[in-house]
Amino acid sequence: MKRSMLASLLALVGFNTFAAEGTQFDWGYAKQTAPAQWGKIKPEYQACEGVNQAPINIDQTISATLPALKLNYSSKADTIINNNRTVQINFAEGSTLELEHKVFHLKQFHLHSPSENTIKGKSFAIEMHLVHATEQGELAVVAVMFEEGQENKKLKKLWKELPKKAGNTVQLKHQDLAAAFLPEKLDYYRFNGSLTTPPCSEGVRWIVLKDIQQASKQQIQTFSSLMEHPNNRPVQPTNARLVLE
């Protein structure tokens, strides 16, 4: 991948800091810029109409001997950003995921409500996407689902520091290690897909953890009200892809 293309891709998926003020998006989640229109907005988004798009409904799966996830999450959360499309937490360098003999570096996680992927038709209140990239720009996303239940202590500290104004970036006071946001059990579903926002680039390795986390009704509402709109892309056709578990 050419360096200029890689830089553009990383910026689009949020690896670079968003502008503090005046961040503009030509795509959204409603009306003329809704997900169904993304592929028509401009040529760079044509992949949004591809055949290996994410998210999907995880239903028909194939049993496989999947390797245990090799996660080395030792770095700390650094900044939190509200860009009016999601809330994103950036991490310092040092956390990695080893997958298919490649090292993916954790860059950030961001949130969607309701969930983007569904499991056997079930949608969840929040979905966390932990986004990783190799030095060459290959991408892997680890997804964690949250359903309504008990207050989530892992999110409680972050919620106190949520930027209320779109475009704002806050230096986190509670710099939890990346590992703090992982569930105890790391069993997962595995499929190949895409980014779930423009440019919808395909070739993204998806890992959806089976261990469902909980967040309180108030925590869910706090995030939802901050976004002022659902920020989930609808599920896309699975087509001929295999989903392994």
Task: Describe the protein's topology.
Layout: H1 3-12, H2 38-41, E1 57-58, E2 70-72, E3 77-82, E4 87-91, E5 96-99, E6 102-112, E7 118-119, E8 126-133, E9 139-148, H3 153-159, E10 169-171, E11 188-194, E12 202-209, E13 213-215, H4 217-227
Parallel strand pairs: 1-7, 9-12, 9-13
Antiparallel strand pairs: 2-5, 3-4, 3-10, 4-6, 5-6, 6-8, 8-9, 11-12
Structure description:
The protein is an alpha+beta fold and 245 residues long. The chain has helices spanning 3-12, 38-41, 153-159, 217-227, and strands at 57-58, 70-72, 77-82, 87-91, 96-99, 102-112, 118-119, 126-133, 139-148, 169-171, 188-194, 202-209, 213-215. Strands 2, 3, 4, 5, 6, 8, 9, 10, 11, 12 and 13 form an eleven-stranded mixed sheet that branches. A two-stranded parallel ribbon has the order 1-7. A hairpin with a 7-residue loop joins strand 11 (188-194) and strand 12 (202-209). The radius of gyration is 17 Å and the shape is globular.
Compact overview of the structure:
This protein is an alpha+beta fold and 245 residues long. The chain has 4 helices and 13 strands.
